[in-house]
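RECORD TYPE: protein structure
NAME: Dynamin N-terminal domain-containing protein
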Amino acid sequence: MTVGLRLDEAVWGLLHQALELYRDNPRATGHLRRQLARLEQPLRIAIAGPWRSGKSTMLNALMGEEVAPVDGADGSGAFTWYEDGAQPHATAYSTSQPPQELAIGKSPTGMRVDLVGWRAGELRDIVVRWPTRALRQVTLIDTPAITGVDEHGRTPVMDRVLRDADAVVYLTRDGRGSDLRALESGRESAVGQAAPVNVIVVRSRVDETGGGRIDALLTARQLARRQHRDPRVTALCVHVVACSGLVGLAGRVLSESDFGALAQVARVPRAALEPFLLSADRFVRDELPVEVAGGTRAALLDRLGLFGVRLATTLVRTGCDSRVALSAELIRRSGLGELRELVSRFFVDRRDTLKARSALAAVEAVLRADPTHGSGELLGAVEQILAGAHEFQELRLLAALRDGGLGFDAELAREARRLVGGDGVGLDARLGVEHDASVQRLWEAASQAQWRWRERAEDPLLRLPQRRGAQVVVRSCEGMLAELAEGGR
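PREDICTED:
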C-alpha cells in the first residue's frame, strides 16, 4: 500500500502523460495503449531458463495438468502463452501472416498442436486457451531456451521475457555463470535497479543433485538457502528455492493405478529392490520380482523419474499408505509447495504492484528509445514513483525476513512479515485479527503496531538494516491507518 497517492493511480497518470507527450507518434502511442490495457489483464508469469532446465515440466507442475510443451514450439523460438478459456483452443501468431487457428489435441507428453508448414523463426507466439482454475488469475508463459549471453550480458529471449512478463520464475541447474548474467541484463534500467521484486530463482531438476541419492532434495534446499545469502544473487531476485518439477508434477497428477503399482514395488524387500533402482534399464527388466508389467514400470519412470520411483517406494514403505498421502508428501518433498507459496505471496498477492512495475518499465523504455521535448521530466517522474513506492520496499523486506539476514528474533520476524503482507495483503491478515473484526479493532491493532515498530526504527542500539526494516513496517502501519481513515477495511 502507498501512503499518499496510490501506486496504481500514479502509474495510470504517468501513462496518460506519456500518451499526451507522444500523441503524434503512432508507434509509441500504440505501445503505451497496450500497457494501459495490460493493467487490467491477468498477471503474466514467464517460466524461463536455459536448455533442459525443466521449464515445461515446471509449468505443468504449477498448473497441476500436463499441457506443456506444445510440440516443436521451443525449437521454433516461439513463446507459448497459457490462458484460461472455456474450451481448449490454440492460435498461432507469426511475423508475416495473420493469426491462424491451430489444430489441438492431447499427446502422451503434453499439448499436440499442428505446426506443420511454419518456417523456422517465423512463429512468434502460440496462445493456448485451456480450461483450468490455475489460469484464472495468471497467464503462464513457456519460453524458448536461453542459450547464452553476448559480451554485453544480453540475450534476445531474456530481453523479451523481461519486457512481456510481469514476473519471472527463472530456472537454473546450478545458479552460476551465464544463468545469472542473463538476469543481470534486466538491471540496466531505473526500474530494474529499483528492486528485483519480480524474479524467483529456482534450482531445478534437483532430483539429480548428488547423483540422485534419496537425500538429493534436502541437499538442494541447503544449496538454495546458501545461494540466497549470496549478495550477487539477492540483487537479482526476491528468493531462491529448490524444486523438482518432475516429482512435484507426479504428486499433483498421481493416479490410483500409479499408487497401486508403486505399492506393489514397495512390497519387494529393500535389499532385493535396490539393485533394480540403480538404473532405468534395470528397473524395467523382467527379473524384478514384482507383479507389475514392464510397460507399467516404464510409465512410472516417465511419470517420476528414477529418483522419484526411489523416493515414492521409500515413502510408501514408511507410512504413505494411500494415494492422497503419497501425493501430498511428494509435493512437499519436491519443493513445489514452497514454490507455489512464493509465487502466491510475491507475485499473485502483489499483482497490482507488479503490473505497475511493468508499466513503469514500458514508459521508461519509450522515453529512452525516442526522447523528445518533455521526456526528461517524465523520466524523473518514473524515478520519483520508484523511490516512493513502498510496495517494492515491502517485497524486499519479505525476502530479507525469510532469509533471516536482518537478525530479528523469530517472534519479531513473524510480526514484521505479517504486517508487510507476508501472510496476505488484506488488513485482517496483516494485523492478525479475525476476518470480521470491527474497524475499531483494526484501528487499535494498527496503532499499537505502529507505535511498537516506530520505537524500533528509532532505537540507536539496533543495527542500521534492522532500523531500516522497522521503518518499512512503520510505513505499512501508516498506510493501514490511512486506509481505515478513508473508510477502508
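COMMENT: The chain has three domains: 1-65+132-244+335-390, 254-331, 404-485.
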